[in-house]
TrEMBL record, chain A:
Keyword presence, Transferase: no
Name the UniProt record assigns to this protein: 2Fe-2S ferredoxin-type domain-containing protein
Signal peptide range in chain numbering: none
Keywords: 2Fe-2S, Iron, Iron-sulfur, Metal-binding, Oxidoreductase
Segments forming domain 2Fe-2S ferredoxin-type: 55-131
Upper lineage: unclassified sequences, metagenomes, ecological metagenomes
SUPFAM superfamilies: 2Fe-2S ferredoxin-like, CO dehydrogenase ISP C-domain like
GO terms for MF: 2 iron, 2 sulfur cluster binding; metal ion binding; oxidoreductase activity
Gene3D superfamilies named among the record's database cross-references: 3.10.20.30, [2Fe-2S]-binding domain
Pfam families: Fer2, Fer2_2
Keyword Transmembrane helix: no
Organism: marine sediment metagenome
UniProtKB/TrEMBL annotation, chain B:
UniProt-listed SUPFAM superfamilies: CO dehydrogenase flavoprotein C-terminal domain-like, FAD-binding/transporter-associated domain-like
UniProt-recorded Gene Ontology molecular function terms: FAD binding; oxidoreductase activity
Boundaries of every FAD-binding PCMH-type domain copy: 1-221
PANTHER family: XANTHINE DEHYDROGENASE FAD-BINDING SUBUNIT XDHB-RELATED (PTHR42659:SF9), XANTHINE DEHYDROGENASE SUBUNIT C-RELATED (PTHR42659)
Organismal lineage: unclassified sequences, metagenomes, ecological metagenomes
Native source organism of the sequence: marine sediment metagenome
Pfam families, A to Z: CO_deh_flav_C (PF03450), FAD_binding_5 (PF00941)
Name this polypeptide is given: FAD-binding PCMH-type domain-containing protein
Length: 209, 324
């Protein structure tokens, strides 16, 4: 399901293509509200259990409200990337082992690849795109740049989200606490020490601010 | 991920009154971290996923006069952060804190952790039809078995992956199960079953039964507990061997002690023999190692996992030392 759609070789870049596709999927997903009534039910002696093959959900992503129709097997990661065009959250292992898809769900970091979109109904999500305010980067983003907290950069959104979750709860973490908080994120370039330095720098800047 | 329908029950009674007519048609989902990974890996293909989180009020930690009650849908993160658990049941606190990663602890639940499926790589490989998946043999027996069971194997050599289970069993926890026949409360240790009982399952739960609550009795005065987990990586992983220990200790002597090992058998493994040897004697490394060896005499390691016997001695010694 999270497999990248086959790309067509045209003059577009891959990113343009994927973004264009995502936008199309968004409008297609939001318009046919009738689909939301695709409800069946399981009859039991203790009443009927609502059974959905499609469901209308409302969620807040980066302080913007979205209402859309999702299928039960769609993950939050899929919805963010393919329907809401927020491709900053990365698909890596897609089975809850690497942390590339980490987002904040009501303030807590979760793997969006193992979180069903139907469950995000009524929740507040923060992705990497929601951290900067206008032209000003979040202190953690700034620190990752200044301290070279990335090499290839693919795991970076996940690491930044986990770091923000840590610093929101503990603005002066020890190295041990930082390592623990980031233990659910993998960096295959092995840039961990720089990442930990970036978190320490961000923590210092945030306390000063 | 193969598509499925999602059912959102409002009460546990609705779940227990589901008729199970076709194999694996329904699967109950708590946190979903294990279930969805199994669906993605095409190990199971349920038609309907029953979302237990749509049932209100199954997430709580309540202190009462005869112990603490934990709702099955309480997140592992909440369990790990709770000060009552941390102060009174350190084994449970340490076990919850050692499960997976921060993200997974925010998603996973106490009940789900107790009911998770094994990590055996033959079981997790969709191409392999082992006994646990209805096939005719256990591929670990003569295959790659570094992480497999040294005790209680036979038909299937999985180890139970739960961290909470050994800790809770050492703490004498009980669980409440809602079933179509009524509701029961049983000791957690009776929940788990060996492959010889039913090779397809790790516990007694039927597809339409719900593990609703965990109950831990009050700790006795001066009772201490701990959970020690050996993993192969520097960061999060499933236990290679773990030891949960509870007891009362003074002057370097345990007046009573309960020991449960994880990572060595298809069920959490109580070391009664070792308990009897350790009880009442001055703790030394020699004593703990000898007691473990004695208790693991019946172990039948496979080609690659004999090291677990010696590792268990060390892990248990570390756990015991931390309580002195």
């Amino acid at each position: 399901m999270e497999k990248t759609k086959k790309k067509k070789r045209k003059t577009f870049t891959r990113r343009d293509f994927l973004k264009g596709f995502g936008g199309g999927a968004l409008s297609a997903a939001v318009v046919p509200q009738l689909l939301a009534h695709d409800i069946d039910s399981l009859r039991t002696k203790k009443g009927n259990i609502p059974l959905f093959s499609k469901k209308q959900i409302s969620l807040t992503v980066n302080e913007k409200k979205f209402s859309l129709v999702v299928e039960p097997a769609e993950t939050l990661l899929h919805v963010l990337r393919e329907k809401l065009n927020l491709t900053g959250t990365k698909t890596m292992c897609a089975r809850g082992e690497c942390g590339g898809c980490t987002v904040l769900l009501d303030g807590n970091p979760v793997y969006s690849c193992l979180y069903l979109a139907v469950r995000a109904d009524g929740k507040k999500i923060t992705t990497i795109e929601g951290l900067a305010t206008k032209e000003k980067l979040h202190p953690v983003q700034q620190a990752f740049i200044e301290k070279d907290g990335y090499q290839c950069g693919f795991c970076t959104p996940g690491f930044i989200i986990s770091s923000v979750a840590l610093l929101n709860k503990n603005n002066n973490p020890t190295l041990e606490e930082t390592k623990n908080a980031l233990s659910g994120n993998l960096c295959r370039c092995g840039n961990y020490s720089r990442i930990h330095e970036a978190v320490a720098a961000a923590s210092k800047n945030m306390r000063r601010a | 991920m193969t598509n499925f329908k999602i059912a959102e029950p409002q009460t546990i009674d609705q779940v227990t009154s589901l008729t199970i007519d076709k194999k694996d048609k329904y699967k109950l989902m708590a946190g979903g971290t294990d279930l969805l990974a199994e669906i993605k890996d095409e190990i199971i293909e349920p038609e309907v996923v029953v979302d237990l989180k749509s049932i209100p009020d199954l997430s709580y930690i309540k202190k009462e006069k005869n112990g603490v009650r934990i709702g099955a849908l309480t997140s592992l993160a909440r369990l790990a952060e709770d000060t009552l658990i941390k102060n009174e049941y350190p084994a449970l606190h340490e076990a919850a804190n050692s499960v997976a990663s921060p993200q997974l602890r925010n998603m996973g639940t106490a009940g789900g952790n107790l009911c998770q499926r094994p990590r055996c790589w033959y079981y997790r490989d969709p191409q392999v039809k082992c006994r646990k998946k209805g096939g005719g043999r256990c591929f670990a027996f003569r295959g790659k078995n570094k992480y497999h069971a040294i005790l209680g194997g036979g038909l299937c050599y999985i180890v139970h992956p739960s961290d909470l289970a050994p800790a809770l069993i050492a703490l004498d926890a009980e669980i409440s199960i809602n079933s179509p026949k009524g509701n029961t409360t049983i000791p957690l240790t009776n929940f788990y079953t060996l492959p010889k009982i039913n090779v397809r399952k790790e516990n007694i739960l039927a597809p339409n039964e719900v593990l609703r609550e965990i109950k831990i009795p009050l700790i006795k005065k001066e009772e201490k507990s701990t959970y020690s987990k050996f993993i192969e990586r520097g960061t999060w992983d499933f236990a290679i061997v773990s030891a949960a220990v509870k007891g009362t200790v003074s002057g370097g002597i345990f007046r009573d002690i309960t020991i449960v090992l994880g990572g060595v058998a298809p069920v959490p493994w109580r070391l009664t023999k070792a308990e009897n040897i350790i009880k009442g004697k001055k703790i030394t490394e020699d004593l703990v190692r000898k007691a473990t060896r004695e208790a693991l005499k019946e172990a039948k390691p496979l080609e690659e996992n004999g090291y677990k016997k010696e590792l268990a001695e060390i892990v248990l010694y570390r756990a015991v030392l931390s309580l002195l």
